[in-house]
Write a structure and sequence with these properties.
- The longest helix has 23 residues, at 118-140.
- This protein has 17 helices and 22 strands.
- 52% of the residues are buried.
- It is globular, with a radius of gyration of 24 Å.
- Strand 10 (245-249), helix 10 and strand 11 form a beta-alpha-beta unit.
- By secondary structure, the protein is of the alpha/beta class.
Length: 507
């Protein structure tokens, strides 16, 4: 992972020993405050089920206050609106520098709150977060531009790309730091103001970033960060009449509700990055060692809690048995250590709800006739640890082959021909990702073109770069995160047509 995302923008030597601390209040208008109700909820460490901190719980009243602050900050006479693109760039670069300087503390908290190995949190989550803010800082500096358009008659026509306004952002728990950056980066580059709700499962690093946002010098009201639950704070954001756009990453079921709330309120713009059941197709000419590693990274990275996880692994019947044997060996070698141990490969799933959900899918797999090849049980007696699990003899109609599990459960499925596998791979309500492992370049091009997915990997998986757009086909979402495409989600296009007087006759 270090080779893929570390690059030259992140240095462990830059790590600071100055503590950020653990903010537990709501950040509204650059002020830390308790919720109106005074209610709190616990942030729980999934490694051992201990409580890290009690966090203030936002509700509708808090959303109203935060939206009012964001609306005031978007006023045409407010400091944020008067800033040039270069000034916004400098603030974002300052934020990126502060995150880099506090990388160790952020990675430690991401590991505590989410359960992922600290080493991964440091070299993947924090490093890519820094890179994301720096990338979008570059866009803020005068690069979000319109067009001049020749039209008929004596007219001059041009377009402007203007910030959409007050944005509500609701982020998930699987990559809290990264998802916050994926959402805030383009919104701030475009000049929007934001009310962001973190997941109730992992609220702490979002608040830590909030502290750094204030330190970086962002004006009051530009970024407001709320900790709370979906049915209360999340719904209030999506329904709010003064929120101009809502961006959400999470499940399809909640995505549908977000669209409903947006329609029932002010028809606010919506972008959604939702679930997946991504196919990884391994052909008979594949290097099996590379194929096993690709499948391992594609499914078991982040304990399977990745929306693009390659949880349907289709293997050509000619190499199926050999692949399965190697895959079982790789899964059994997984080191399930304390997440702070540098040798840890896999931590726990995020909480008890997810723990029970994943184990229920494992039971469904066994009950419906799939063959449990390895894993399938709790690891240890404390925390939410689940063994890396592989099922063989999986059929397309099995629940574990159709529904998103979001845990360390791999389904290995046989196929016979290219034509057959394209049809079966596309037979899903989802279309977030897919993968192809083959030595045949023509086949790789054919199959990657035929797959109905927003991202297709060839001879690799889970490779991300902030310049590459990310999003899905079908029920996997609407719109795109990352890259230039994400900026389109946070801007409105204004057309200006000016009459041009003809030259005087005596000119």
């Amino acid at each position: 992972y270090q080779r893929r995302v570390h690059g030259d923008t992140f240095s462990l030597s830059a790590v600071s020993t100055m503590p950020i601390g653990i903010p537990t209040q709501l950040l509204i208008n650059n002020e830390w405050r308790n919720s109106v109700s005074g209610k709190t909820f616990p942030a729980v460490n999934p490694t051992d089920e201990s409580v890290i901190a009690d966090v203030q719980e936002a509700d509708k009243e808090d959303v109203d206050i935060a939206v009012a602050a964001a609306k005031a900050a978007f006023d045409k006479n407010a400091p944020w609106r008067k800033m040039s693109g270069r000034q916004r760039r400098d603030l974002m670069l300052k934020l990126a520098d502060l995150i880099e300087q506090n990388a160790e503390e952020l990675a430690n908290m991401e590991s505590l709150d989410n359960g992922k190995p600290k080493t991964i949190a440091l070299i993947v989550d924090v490093a890519m977060t820094v890179r994301c803010y720096r990338y979008y800082a570059g866009w803020a500096d005068g690069k979000i531009v319109g067009q001049t358009i020749p039209i008929e008659g004596n007219y001059f026509c041009y377009t402007r790309h203007e910030p959409v306004g007050v944005v509500g952002q609701i982020i998930p728990w699987n990559f809290p730091l990264l998802m916050q950056a994926w959402k805030l980066g383009p919104a701030l580059a475009a000049g929007c103001t934001v009310v962001l709700k973190s997941s109730e499962k992992t609220p702490l690093t979002a608040l830590m970033i909030g502290k750094l946002i204030v330190e970086a010098g962002f004006p009051p009201g530009v970024v407001n960060i709320l900790s709370g639950f979906g049915p209360t704070a999340g719904q209030a954001i999506a329904r709010h009449p003064h929120v101009d756009k809502v961006a959400f990453t999470g499940s399809c079921g909640v995505g549908r509700k977000i669209m409903q709330y947006a329609a029932e309120s002010n028809l606010k713009r919506v972008s959604l990055e939702l679930g997946g059941k991504s196919p990884l197709i391994i052909f008979d000419d594949a290097d099996l060692d590379k194929a096993v590693e690709t499948a391992r990274v594609g499914l078991f990275f982040n304990c399977g809690q990745c929306c693009i996880a390659s949880s349907r692994v289709f293997v050509h019947e000619a190499v199926y048995d050999a692949f399965v044997a190697k895959c079982i060996e790789a899964a059994k070698s997984t080191k399930m250590l304390h997440p702070t141990d540098p040798g840890c490969d896999q931590g726990p799933v995020v909480d008890k709800l997810q723990f029970d959900r994943v184990l229920s899918y494992i039971e469904k797999g066994k009950n419906e006739g799939a063959k449990l090849l390895t894993g399938g049980a709790r690891h240890g007696d404390k925390g939410f640890w689940i063994e890396p699990t592989i099922f063989g003899e999986v059929e397309d109609h099995h629940t574990i082959a159709k529904e998103e599990i979001f845990g360390p459960v791999m389904s290995v499925i046989k196929f016979k021909s290219e034509e057959d596998i394209i049809r079966r791979a596309n037979d899903s309500i989802y279309g977030l990702g897919g993968g192809v492992v083959t030595k045949d370049i023509s086949r790789a091009i054919r199959v990657s073109s035929a797959l109905q997915a927003g991202t297709v990997y060839v001879n690799c998986y889970n490779v991300f770069d902030v310049a590459c757009p990310f999003g899905g086909f079908k029920q996997s979402g609407i719109g795109r995160d990352l890259g230039e495409y994400s900026l389109h989600e946070y801007t409105e296009v204004k057309t200006v047509i000016m009459a041009v007087d003809p030259a005087p006759k005596d000119a």
